[in-house]
Amino acid sequence: MATLARWCYRHRLVVLLLWVGALLGLGAAASSAGTDYANVFSLPNTDSKRAYDQMEKAFPERAGDTDTVVWKVDTGTVRDQSVQSRIQPALDRIGKMAGVGGVTSPYAGDRGAAQISANGKIAYAQITFAEQANAVPKELVQDVVDTAQGARGGGLHVELGGQAIQRVQEPPTGLAEMIGILAAAVVLFLAFGSLFAMLLPIGIAIFGVGTGLFSTQLLSHVTSVPDLAPLLATLIGLGVGIDYALFIVTRHRRGILRGMDPEESAVTALNTSGRAVLFAGGTVCIALAGMLVTNLRFLDGVVIGTSLTVVFSVLAAVTLLPALLGFLGSRVLSRRQRRKLAAEGPEPERASGFAARWSASVQKRPRSIAVMAVVVMAILAIPVLSLRLGATDQGNDDASTTTRKAYDLLAEGFGPGFNGPLQVVSTSGDTNKLVQGIRATDGVAQVAALPPAQGVTVIQVVPTTSPQSEKTDQLIDTLRDKVIPDAGAQAHVGGVTAISKDFSTVTGDRLPLFVATIIGLGFLLLMVAFRSLVVPLTAALMNLIAAAASFGVLVAIFQWGWGLSLLGLGKEGPINAFLPVIMLSLLFGLSMDYQVFLVSRMHEEWVHTKDNARAVRVGLAETSRVINSAALIMVCVFLAFVLSGDSGAAMAGVGLAAAVALDAFILRTALVPAAMHLLGKSNWWLPAGLEKRLPHLAVEPAEEAESLPRASAGGPTVVHGFVRDAEGGPVDGAVLTLLSKGGRQLDRVTSLADGSYIVSVPAPGAYLLSATASSYGARARHILVTDEPLVHDLELTEGEVDAVN
User: Fold this and answer.
1) Where would I find the SSD domain in this sequence (predicted)?
2) Rg for the chain, CA atoms, rounded
């Protein structure tokens, strides 16, 4: 890693040009090729899939999307000539538009009469476009909306619904991303105090997300990629891209402040935090790949898009970022920091401020802090007990949208179930008997059998309840388990509502396997990286706690409706069935990031000192601030997707924002360190037999060869001096430990009443000398010993947490 970082730093112009060329080249190729996203929901071995297969054979699917114009009158009926004279000309003009395949009017004979409500107050017309919803030009859809709504007024209300209509309601593309980036920029500027330092993580995220999205767009021509994939890829790409760069830039700035040359500081940052970024990016991709075990084929494209974006974000962080750091040099610091560095010299190697005080508090009161954190997470997780998976539709849109108004008008005029009719597809048996049985079933409002084709009869069934109602799910089960068998027919229940129910069932059944897979893979990775059984077990438990609490928040907001009106997210309903799989993948990957950055610093300190309390205290003090800043950026980016206009993305954004906030602010900075203090040295336990068999995967940089005693290198020598407090008084009983660079203890002594100490050094070379004392903080220093005895005094400050980079 150090070699790569140094090469990129020194050849920064070449690296920058390569990345710019890649971004522009992929962008040009994607622009010329266009998009070919396809929403393919394949649910093998489900009843709704068998119904769909039969319908596809007998009734080839129409080429275009079908949307609806709905109108209602305050007085009279929709059959009045005054109403027809305004609506029919508008429908005629829509029918003549290029790109519109046809319009089915309620005023067209007996067939159209079914499109008028029983009380005559509400009617609808169906518009069939020549293309599917995603391919219909927005200009055409807007013309349709304007033409239809132009008939409004004088007690006539006109609304439109459908997938194509919904697209023109969405905010401009990129609005959510821009707001998320601006919010991240504010947080970065407050954290760094430097414009250049602020721009670095944002630039890395833009390059990573841009190349990832363009690549995904090109791949959509050779494999099935749903249109949800680029939105989720942007969601995760912006978050991890900014975060990964933030971790590296923070380490680099700290190195410069401590007197390192900018090049050496950048190389060191990439060789430490950069390794953690590589490992964290790998865990995110593995968590995303866990979606493949669900065997839900439409998620394959989501895995491709999000994983590609993460990979490009990691590559940008470890190659482009050191190049940009080379262009900036010391300007990565603020002007005030540069002036202070020039006037006062390097800063001492210690963590101070609130992070150090909080770290000390966790060490003093681990039990009470752990209990409080568990109680908070448990309360937030309570709503998850009523979690109900399903599918959102236009009935969940905001009440001010035309799609929601059209949905409500259709429900008012034709019943709640009209927005989600069932299709019973019969291939053999007595159709009349089946129709009679369905009509006599509780919960059925209307039944109509269409003329058979190629031995297949489709029976349209309108439930009395809405598509999202649990009673509609019960009706589907009744039809499948009782009505169809009693009629002696060979039939299957399909339609959008039945597909949604089957999708929810399949997802729920496969969720335990999915969770077990990603937790198991994460456990193995952490065990190999940190040579411990307890650390990965703790991480797995924390992931489950974070998942339960974040889904509790989702249920409370989107299923119970708490705060939905404040967020402008429409009406409450079930949680999207695909969301648990996608959200758990992202959540487990992101939470693993924070676990890696936190524990890798603790592990680094543990290797050097073998002092668990110090390792946990120092690791938390040095990483909590940057983890919290990274989490705050993630929360801003995710919450910005509430403005995306896509209910699925909004739900995922809120859920992930809640998950990241709870994970970073409660679990990683409170519960995890408290638990590690309580567990003590058990954190780092690994059976000897397992230690020998596990491969080595270093998150920290490889150790340099130690200087061992040699005849030509001089004989043993000593390091001696005094340990004093901040006022210069002696510190009695301080424990001083001399360690090799690999973390092996070489000597251990206790200071005398006057604070003096002396430790034996086997041979000249580089070592680590640490000092700890009760009621004081700890201090560690790298020392370089020559042939002569070294005099080295140490100062301990009460409450201070000091650590070596």
Assistant:
1) 182-327
2) 32
